[in-house]
């Protein structure tokens, strides 16, 4: 093989490898995107039916009920509510009236079943997603009251 | 008074750094030896100022000076002494100060351990580092001054976030920062070389120990962070693909590529542009990590504060560094063309393949980390990329890396043959596959992924031992074998050990969340856990519910574990303290959840884990770091290269 041919072979091989890698990466990427929906969006039916997604807002006061290890609570953006259940140990900072982000799916009855409840790490810290959901709901309310 | 001294030291440092940066660069360009001679004393002065400033903030913490806003927010009179010192870097402003101190420490080290370097090189390297310091100092003084005073002095501080009140805080951040900032040193060497227009084997030899040193710190820092998350957060996870973890992992991946690419540049004078590129990317990723952590765009343990001004500043700084260095690279890259040829089957090729794979892995992690932020910034919705993506992408990229690692360390430079390589590696490969495929039967259900990784692990370890054996046999005196040789094999075996941990935990870990009343038992992976008691225990600044859990196997009691649920006085924030029984081949892990009040008998939620070989993950990292240390301490880096020292250089031995 001449050096020129060898170099061409290396370049083609590298490009092919890169192409295959890119294909796998993007494929995995596409199927693992988890979208976020605010309770208002969920109420409007925008959330997917058979796919994992995230919701966020506040844990509604007085909504936390325990039955053994299963906890049910309501995630609210002060305008709309999403009833949620979770089985397992909740993060330390899960509290009524505080911000929360949960990841999960709808079950057959249309109830949100969380597989993961995300902790915030400081009592004064609000997850940006939850904050955005609350702000959005507040804006909608203000617009309505002006009409 | 003391905080003002600290503040003043920072302002003074800004001017020293500015002078050092401009004089160093201009002096280097114009060949002014008197300006260049200022580099070492200048860097040492800068270090002194940084230490004074840091000492002042530490003093303010130690004396509970709540008139300083930062102290009031992150300390408390009841905080134990050790956390009052570590609390200095427990928040945003202080961790930036630590960052700056680390940068100055690296500069100090360069100024002390650079006797074999020509003055012009030293002054340029220190000048580039000083310019980086200017950026950080401006950032601190403009947006995040740790010495700001409060007009109304609170009687009590707000306390350090309970999550951070752990020995992990004492060691993890300084070590990680040391690594992050350390990436600035090879970056500075590259910029200096571009300014010089001279990029030869000598340059690579000067840069190698620094790149390796930074890589060692990153390795240890990441490993400690992972261990801390494992025992502290109560979720039993040692890696979450959290954006901030990724931010520290990205420079590590690129740094790993860099130290190998530097090896080729030193030994064969090849891959020069690639090496320069990697050092620029490595440092840029360190800065990107700073941006991600400090701008508050992320939901994470590490996101202390949200202030858009800070994010914008770091982003501008990042743009200046990346833009500036890439422009310089574009202007000068014509001068750094690599010479020399190598055959398709040669050590160069295998190192190149692994370099490409490591950077591809870094790119894939970067995509998953940045994509949600970009989509959010463009207002296209909110989304996240889950761990399944990273797991799915990472394993297929890294497994070939393990394969080529072995082939690369056996292949000869320039030219080798497949026949020869397979003669050397083939028999061991057969044995490894046999061992790798049978080992999973001992641990649990057989899976091809476990078999594949364990085969590679056996192959790495056995071939390394084989190589060492041959080396010892062929040399009469083992003392002549260079340290770097031992370092390489130790680091590679470290990787293998780490892979064992990751593979076994991923495949065979076992977890149970259960409800337990006193006297209840639960069984996981052959171990029986019995909750014998729960009592209230006072701590220095918290009270805790402490569970007593009896661990037994086959009816034999092994020990008691005492997990706690703490409530801190200052914040009423509960904290889970896990209890772990650690053995060489497995960890057993208990965490106390919340008290369940739904029935008459008191009961608690408990989480129980069985984690096979989990400690091997960190043990492997430690071996890697040790290997790196051996490599960086190799005698030939300290040898004075007489030919490269210009004869007119003055004051070489400062």
Question: How is this structure best described in words?
Answer:
The complex is a heterodimer of chains A (147) and B (654). Chain A is α+β, with helices and mostly antiparallel strands. Helix content of chain A is 36%, strand content 30%. Chain A has two domains: 1-33; 35-146, Nucleic acid-binding proteins (OB fold (Dihydrolipoamide Acetyltransferase, E2P), Beta Barrel). Chain A contains three helices and seven strands, in the order αβαββββββα. Chain A has a five-stranded mixed barrel with strand order 2-4-5-7-6. In chain A, a hairpin with a 4-residue loop joins strand 4 (70-76) and strand 5 (81-87). The longest helix of chain A is centred in the first third of the chain and has 29 residues, at 3-31. Chain B is α+β, with helices and mostly antiparallel strands and 654 residues long. Chain B is built from 20 helices and eleven strands. Chain B folds into four domains: 1-160, no CATH class; 166-336 and 344-364 and 373-386, no CATH class; 399-508, no CATH class; 510-613. Chain B starts with a helix and ends in a 16-residue tail after the last helix. Chain B is globular and about 85 Å long. Chain B has helices at 2-30, 33-36, 39-62, 69-74, 81-86, 92-112, 119-143, 167-182, 184-196, 201-232, 243-268, 272-294, 308-332, 347-377, 387-410, 418-443, 448-474, 483-508, 615-632, 635-638, and strands spanning 383-385, 510-517, 521-524, 527-538, 542-553, 556-561, 564-568, 574-577, 579-583, 586-596, 603-612. In chain B, the strands form two sheets. In chain B, strands 3, 4, 5, 6, 7 and 8 form a six-stranded antiparallel sheet that branches. Chain B has a four-stranded antiparallel sheet with strand order 2-11-10-9. The model of chain B is unreliable at 299-305 and 642-654 (pLDDT under 50). In chain B, helix 7 packs antiparallel against helix 13 (308-332). Strand 1 of chain A pairs antiparallel with strand 1 of chain B, so a sheet runs across the interface.
